[in-house]
């Protein structure tokens, strides 16, 4: 392939992603460039949050997918990679057993990371990019299928980080506990009262899709979504079934189901913090995983 390649595997509650990047020449605007992204919606959270374990069928599918990802990484001659599993595998009683099976079959060692490590990986690129902006305080909100990660960033420092078991698949499955929901709201209120004005940063596939739906005429240049536009889009999507959303808004089946619960979480945080916009970067957890194995990045 000529260039050095690095990869990250993000095993989420909704989808499993493989991201491969190549190392650019010194002095390039971006140290790493994306060359391949594969996303497969296995919906592991449907098993983990309802039954407490990954079913035999989905476990077999995950093993097959890891074999395919291993082959793809070999084609790209990946120098180093890291595979991380989040909320669904954390909750599944057979998560560790499945990790061992995948390692035996594919030689891919999966880390089941906790919420704090997940939050750190998500915010690492933001912290580097905001290193010179010391006055503003940013609340980084990552809404996943099983959990929502909150990171408070000021300048180059991660000040606070919390993970809550509130995610889109968990909400659709009716498995979000009232105590967790109340704790989430109380924590955001505490951040608002302690740190004052917070600028929201949203990450994940749902907020990127909501951005495109909320600002279709400017999507090539927009990197922030007005909260009023998010509310309008959410209200419109709410009127339709997932099948109708697929047809009317060209959404993939799994995205059509989870996009409204995701919007509701972002709107709740925006309401509590009184934010008027949500900054939407293009990078997420998979990027953070790749960056963590690249030797030139801190």
Automatic annotation (TrEMBL):
Source superkingdom: Bacteria
Name assigned to this protein: Exopolyphosphatase
Domain Ppx/GppA phosphatase N-terminal: 39-293
Pfam families named in the record: Ppx-GppA
Transmembrane segments: none
């Amino acid at each position: 392939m000529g260039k050095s390649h690095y990869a990250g595997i993000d095993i989420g509650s909704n989808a499993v992603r493989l991201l491969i990047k190549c190392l650019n020449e010194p002095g390039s605007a971006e140290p790493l460039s994306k060359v391949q992204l594969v996303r497969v919606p296995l919906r592991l959270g449907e098993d983990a949050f309802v039954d407490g374990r990954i079913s035999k069928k989905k476990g077999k599918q995950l093993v097959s997918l890891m074999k395919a990802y291993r082959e793809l990484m070999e084609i790209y001659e990946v120098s180093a990679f890291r595979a991380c599993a989040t909320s669904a595998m954390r909750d599944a009683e057979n998560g560790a057993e499945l990790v061992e099976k995948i390692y035996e079959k594919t030689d891919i060692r999966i880390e089941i990371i906790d919420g704090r490590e997940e939050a750190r990986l998500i915010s690492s690129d933001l912290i580097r990019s905001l290193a010179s902006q010391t006055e503003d305080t940013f609340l980084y909100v990552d809404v996943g299928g099983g959990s929502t990660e909150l990171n408070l960033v000021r300048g180059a420092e991660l000040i606070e980080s919390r993970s809550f078991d509130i995610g889109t698949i968990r909400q659709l499955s009716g498995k979000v506990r009232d105590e967790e929901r109340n704790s989430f709201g109380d924590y955001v209120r505490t951040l608002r009262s302690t740190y004052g004005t917070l600028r929201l940063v949203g990450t994940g596939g749902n907020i990127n899709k909501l951005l495109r739906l909320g600002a279709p005429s400017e999507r090539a240049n927009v990197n922030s979504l007005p909260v009023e536009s998010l509310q309008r889009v959410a209200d419109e999507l709410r009127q339709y079934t997932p099948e109708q959303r697929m047809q009317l808004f060209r959404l993939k089946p799994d995205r059509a189901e989870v996009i409204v619960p995701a919007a509701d979480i972002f709107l709740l945080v925006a309401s509590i913090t009184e934010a008027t916009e949500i900054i939407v970067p293009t990078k997420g957890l998979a990027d953070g995983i790749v960056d963590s194995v690249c030797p030139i990045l801190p």
